[in-house]
Amino acid sequence: MEIRRVSILGAGTMGRGIAQLFAQHGYPTVLCDPMAPALSRAREFIRKGLARGVQKGKFSARDRDAAEGALRFTSRIQDVLPAELIVEAAPEDLGLKQRIFRELDARALPEVLLATNTSSLSVSAIAEKTQHPERVLGTHFFNPPPVMKLVEVVRARRTDARVFQAVWDLLKSLGKTPVEVQDSPGFIVNRVLRPYYLEGMRLVEVEGAGIETVDQSAREVGGVPMGPFELMDFIGLDVNLAIARAIYGALGNPARLKPHPLQEALVQKGELGRKSGVGFYLYRDSEISGLNPAVEKQLPKREKISLSPEEIWRRLCGGILEEARLLHGEGRASEEAIDTAVRLGMRFPQGPFEWARVSSDAPKV
Ligand SMILES: NC(=O)c1ccc[n+]([C@@H]2O[C@H](COP(=O)([O-])OP(=O)(O)OC[C@H]3O[C@@H](n4cnc5c(N)ncnc54)[C@H](O)[C@@H]3O)[C@@H](O)[C@H]2O)c1
Question: Which one of 8, 225, 311, 341 has the fewest CB atoms closer than 10 angstroms to its CB?
């Protein structure tokens, strides 16, 4: 199963980055999108990305020219077929992805491997619409794909072990750190990070902690780049809530993962975080300029005696640890895979099991 040529379907945020990554490593790469404007935006985006790589000394001008030469842009699905691997990065819609996989399966040679970049849909549900589900798996890249080392490689119910291994080896050859996860809602990072956000919202709503205090505690005690509110605003409250709802529903509506009304109210008002200039915080030129006064009004009056930064971090990280233990207990991923995914996917200094081993504060099993 030697992979020599790669095709990507969908030239949006993720598809264009995945195409750039493969082209940079010398793979003849076809990038396909039915929308002509998406294709021309992707072409320009990749050109700039490669030029930046040269400026920063990551590769030579000759390598950039080779990468540009390796790329082909198309809006015809038949052009993606001559490849050993096709990666789908179309919008997050189960029906659409099932249709795409049914068509690819019917038209591509049986030895062509088919990967989906879905972040919250069931890879098995996509694979089951094909005649050859053994050649289907998930490759969950993180944004931006050329930069982020982590890829969650998702083994669906019927993925063939050789298919999994071939894609695993390919990702390693690109300098990525793949982690293995069985097909399950939210895979690793999106699932175990749920309590980070929810616990943050409970801390402000029930315990009277300040939003800024929670974020600052996470950064200063936990050493993470963003606290839960900064991170939700950064990701987009709507995108984050859609993932929250998908995971909650797919796991059978467990009370601990119920989406929080505070976040739902903001999304309903169109206050979506950094991209709309207002979320939990207000933004001026993409920088935080203060708290959203409407959120403050909804919260209880601050208690005089508030939680210590250490206790806040213990609550946030303890929530992640609890979800990580559940995921591991279900046999979906190893402790090592979970730790690696949280470190590389979220830029945390430690994964939850590593934290539990070195911290006397961590909740015991
Ligand atoms: N954006 C992220 O940070 C991120 C991270 C990890 C995974 N994902 C997942 O990656 C996938 C793509 O997300 P995105 O953010 O790049 O979306 P996007 O909306 O930026 O891009 C999707 C592209 O797919 C194209 N498209 C529509 N129908 C198509 C079809 N039938 N065939 C091929 N292309 C089609 C659209 O024209 C668009 O250009 C989703 O499944 C998403 O959940 C996104």
Answer: 225
Residue 114 lies in a domain: yes
The answer to whether residue 365 sits within a structural domain is: no
Same domain, 203 and 169: no
pLDDT, residue 200, reads 97
Q: Is 13 in the pocket of ligand 1 (CB under 6 A)?
A: yes
Alpha helices in 119-253 (DSSP H): 123-127, 161-173, 189-192, 194-205, 211-222, 228-235, 237-250
- Which residues are paired to 86 by β-bridges? 7, 114
Q: Could you tell me which residues are beta bridge partners of residue 52?
A: none
Residue with tokens 């985006």: 45
Confirm whether 292 is domain-assigned: yes
152, 199, 323, 354: which one is catalytic? 152
b or e along 282-317 (b: 16 or more beta carbons within 10 Å of the residue's beta carbon)? bbeeeebeebbeebeeebeeeeeeebebebbbbbbb
Angstrom distance (rounded) from CA 101 to CA 103: 5
What is the length of the chain? 365
Please state the pTM of the whole predicted model: 0.94
Residue 236 CB less than 6 A away from ligand 1? no
Average pLDDT, the chain: 95
Q: 259 and 162: one domain?
A: no
Residue ranges in the chain modelled with pLDDT below 50: none
pLDDT value of residue 1: 80
Whether residue 316 sits in one domain with residue 268: yes
> Is 140 one of the catalytic residues?
yes
Domain limits at 194? Answer: 190-358
